[in-house]
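[audit] Reproducing an earlier prediction to check determinism. Same input, same settings, fresh worker. If the C-alpha cells differ from the archived copy the diff job will pick it up downstream; this log only records the rerun itself.
[audit] input (222 residues):
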Amino acid sequence: MRRGTWRTGMKIGIIGAGFVGRAIGKLAVRSGHQVMLCNSRGPETMFSLRYAVGGEVGTVEEAAAFGDVVVLAIPLSAYRSVPAAPLAGKIVIDANNYYHERDGRFPELDAQATTTSELLAGHLPRSRIVKAFNAITMMDLESDGRPAGAPDRRALPLAGDDAEAKAVAVRLYEEFGFDAVDAGSLSEGWRFERGRPAYCVRFGKADLQSVLADTRRDGPLP
C-alpha cells in the first residue's frame, strides 16, 4: 500500500465470509471502499454475497492480492492457512478471537504467554498487523454506529506496531460510526481479547480508555 493512499477509497480484501467478514464488508462498501470476499470453499459458494454485501468474491489468493488492506475474519485455528507471500508489506487487520471450544487448545494462549495477533504476526512476519474489530459483536457493529460527537457514541479498541496500519483501522472505525482507542503495541492486544472487561461491552471513549488501562493480565478468564 502506497503511503497516503489510505486517505482515498481503499481496496479491502476480506479472508473469511462468515458473520464478521460480511458485516465488515457491507460497512466498508457503504463507506466507499471496494471489497472482495473469499472463503476456503471457493467463490462459487458465495454467489449471493455479491448482492448482499455489494462487493466482489474470489479465492483466498485473489482476495489477498486484491486488497491494499486485508481483513482476517476466520477462525483462529485456520490462521496458518493464510498465504504469507501475497500479504508481504500489506496492512492486515486481525479480527480473530480465541475460542478453545471451536479452535482447539493453544497452550501458549492458555498460559497468557502471547496474544492471538502475535501468533498471526509470527506467521506473517512481513505484514503490518493491527488488532481490531474483535471486541464487538457483528450485530452491534452494524447497529451501534453513531455520528461523530454523538453523546452515546461507542468506542472500540485497537493495537499494533505500525502507525499507518493503526491509522487505517482508526479510519474504518470512524467511518463505521465508532470512536477509536489505541491500546498500544500489538503485544497489548490481550487487553481486549475474549473474556477481558472491554470485550464486547459498550463503552464510550473515556470509559474504554480507563477500562483498558486498569485491565490486568493475571486477571481471571472464562
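[audit] rerun output stored. Observation attached for the diff report: The chain is about 30% helix and 15% strand.
[audit] end
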